[in-house]
Please model this.
Amino acid sequence: MQLKGDVSKLDNFISPDFVDHSGGAGDIEIRGKDSLKPKVGDLHNHVKDLKFNLIASATSDDGAYNFTLVQLTGTSIDDFMGVPPNTTIDQTAVNVISIKDGMFTGQWRFIKHAKQCR
Model:
């Protein structure tokens, strides 16, 4: 699914009480879908040509967890999260997503930091 900055699509699969345990700047948890939406939308203000490439995905047998390997690419527009302007971003991460009643309720992100920005 491509969001392309349209965060209203998050309503289709993000629970109102969603928690991003990996957080944003400063690793502070992001609590609630309404807190998550501006963070997701804001990425497009700081990274041009933002793309998420799903490399692999698996779901636990009971459907309670989804595991994804993703690649985020783009170019920083300004000084964002410590990345200088016009820096190529190529970041690989594993996401663990908890699921209840078909909705994402939580996320933990594990980022490979080596060579992510150059």
Q: What stands out?
A: The chain has one helix and six strands. The two ends are 27 Å apart (CA to CA).
